[in-house]
Amino acid sequence: MTTDPDLAQATTRRAALVQALADSGELTDPAWRTAFERVPRHVFVPYFYDHMGRRISADDADTRDAWFDAVHEDRALVTHRTGGAATSSSSQPSVMATMLEALRVEDGVGMKVLEIGTGTGYNAALLTHRLGNDSVVTVDTEPDLIAAARTRLTETGYEPNVVLADGAHGHPDLAPYDRIIATCRIDSVPPAWLRQLTDGTGSDAGQILAPLGNALVRIHRTGGPLQAEGCFLPGGAYFMPLRHGTVDGIPVRRPALPTGKARRTDVPASALADNAYRFLLSIVEPHLDWQYDLDDAGKPTAARVWSPDGTIAALHPDGTVTEAGPRSLWSRLEEAYRVFTEHDGPGPERYGLTVDHEAQRVWLDGPGGPCWSLRP
Ligand SMILES: C[S@@+](CC[C@H](N)C(=O)[O-])C[C@H]1O[C@@H](n2cnc3c(N)ncnc32)[C@H](O)[C@@H]1O
């Protein structure tokens, strides 16, 4: 097998990575530890693209060593590109471990898991190693990814249900699912996922774990099929978006810089580099793009922020802002900053999500706190 240059060496390198994940506290569950030790990531990631877009591959003598090192490091690796943009990756193993542990699966009870975003098939292999072939369903929209993942899964002895489908619709044919795990970012929870969750309101209720904005949210059913609630987990989670068409996820061209009158603002450039504030912005304005100017110490001094609707704001080093476009983007950022500072700069773990028939709301410090409606 071309991607298996030295099985013993790969096993040793994988064991070292697993030990590092355990030492850092990201991999604590012995059953997931065994899965990470056994499933060979290098088979699922036979090549990737570096930050210059160069292909680093097991089949290329010039890049083979770099490839072998990278697949055994705690790195996210871009594995698919469309029009110059990254459209699939093998996620960072530490993030995968965090998500799999947060999924709270139980062994030996026939739990069924739906994964949205098959990608390389590596995460599906980890799930299948632990839960068995019949318990895992994985979907992706990219036909070539699905075909390659199927081949690699078979090669490594795993046979979950691998389905070419738009994950926004889940996979009703094999529902209900005890767990749904998304490995791509959502802006709101697709109603199909809620409908395909296992019934129940107690500890047996179906659960969804997904990157929503820049963090992971875990919600469980609280009543009828469209009622669910849960909390965000600490720390960030930066995933590719769930695509609704071929162009989603490809960076939006920056609109022309605003030339209008500058006004003062209380939002400092440093806030834009604060992950906690950025999390709130990822909820309030999910599709922002950014550029910064940094000083010698690497601190932002100025920034441009824009949205796909053509709205742009430029924050200048003197603390003023200029704007252009169909609405005031900066006012949204200012309002979010006011809430953020009034509540002492909360991280994602202080937010939660409530879903019912009418709306999906992210709240801060409880369902009665400040809240933001998610757009479907
Ligand atoms: C970070 S990658 C997934 C990594 C994967 N779990 C693995 O172990 O390699 C995100 C994946 O989500 C997929 N994706 C994006 N939009 C999707 C959609 N609407 N339905 C299903 N998959 C989607 C992408 O094609 C991509 O493969």
UniProtKB/TrEMBL annotation:
Gene Ontology terms describing biological process: methylation
SUPFAM superfamilies listed in its UniProt record: S-adenosyl-L-methionine-dependent methyltransferases
Top EC category: transferase
Keywords for the protein's UniProt record, in alphabetical order: Cytoplasm, Methyltransferase, S-adenosyl-L-methionine, Transferase
Cellular localisation: Cytoplasm
Keyword Transmembrane helix listed: no
Lineage: superkingdom: Bacteria
A molecular function (GO) term: protein-L-isoaspartate (D-aspartate) O-methyltransferase activity
InterPro entries recorded: PCMT, SAM-dependent_MTases_sf
GO CC terms: cytoplasm
Predominant location: cytoplasm
EC assignment: 2.1.1.77
Recorded family membership: Belongs to the methyltransferase superfamily. L-isoaspartyl/D-aspartyl protein methyltransferase family.
Name of the protein in question: Protein-L-isoaspartate O-methyltransferase
